[in-house]
Amino acid sequence: MSAPGREGPPEPDGVAPDGSDGAASRSGSADHAYDEAVRALFSRRPDRMVPGLGRIRALCTALGEPQRAFRAVHVTGTNGKTTLASLVSALLVAHGVRAGTYTSPHLQEVGERVRVDGAPLGREELVDTLARLRAPLAEVEAARDEMVTFFETLTALAYERFARAGVEIAAVEVGMGGRWDATNVVDADVAVINPVRLDHAELGSTVGEVAGEKAGIIADGATVVSAAQEPEAAAVIEAEARARDATVLRAGTDFAVVRRTPGPAGQQVALRSGDLVIDDITLPLRGAHQAANAACALAAVEAMLSSGLDPDAVHSGFAAVRCSGRLEVVRSATPRGAPVVLDGAHNPAGAAALADALVREFPARRRTLVLGAMGDKDYGGIVDALLPVCDRIVTTQAPTGRSAPPDALAKQARLAGRDAEPIADIGGALEAAGASAGAEDLVVVTGSLYLVGAARDALGLPVR
What we know:
UDP-N-acetylmuramoyl-L-alanine:D-glutamate ligase, Protein-Tyrosine Phosphatase, Chain A, 38% helix
């Protein structure tokens, strides 16, 4: 059984050791009310994941059921959920729909998780919404004699914000799993299930068990958009859909990537949904897996819109998508001008997708890997997937207690027959990696969204 949490690390990326938002602390100019609100939010122990929907249901009831004020596309799977939710929202906005997006984790500031029409929640809005939650939280906790968790609080905050902002459709990413995830108090019209792989032990020891937890987001009579799945996962999803009288749209049959051509700033794709083929789409995201995400998003939005898809809106919507930390390229960010690729691959499946993209999208380049992974992840599998496509390895540590020590990651690389240089902090690791990387080379920062957020800060990149 899954717990109401997140696919990413249990603490938000960018959180300082004292529990405050890291970006706020580093800036030295954070508003006191914001700093205190974030500190109070983090005091709810982001690492605490407790199964059950009782707390979030009680909190939503106390707030007047904000999750009923909008329709929803619910997104689950092992990887790619944040990107897929962002793609869905971008298409909705381009079609004139007021859209909300709820994703996790964030990279630099907590407001990145909650967006209306693509704009992240501002600091003042975060403070105000948390203030509205204060009395309902106290009421629920007094009645139940237990604390509402960090993720449950953020989920209620997102739904409350969407309701007050007049959101018509929200793209909602699960935290972890689906069936018992706090987000699952919505009855979504569309459930999107990205490829299911083994990742969190809490979700099951087989792909079928994991798929059962993720298929728990399917509501009665919903439409299920299923990416390409292993047979065991596909069978479980189909069975859950039949039990819910839901319609299943399958990748490769009901929607597909017709063709894709990588380019310097992403790719050109042709996508099919049903009988409709839309060609010459500019997708400013790299990798075949992102084209597959776009096809899923297209099918999901078509299922939500009674008026059907507008090809012009599809073109403009996809062209506007930006996803920080997902094969994000930062050009000339090192002393000798080497581009830096930031990617949050945090499990072997994500690392394999990154390795494939590096070979296909950046051929004939010398690549330096800057790796920092969580100690409770299969970092051996991550290392094994990435070593064949990298020429030099620097290991480092993400700013969280769950991070694997750089020496442990370096040892894993050495066991695979490769040398690695352990450097404790991301700033030093970036400096070391960039010192010998020329303009035609590549520095790749990956292994954790924690690390990507810290790297964005170290590189002076703004919150986006």
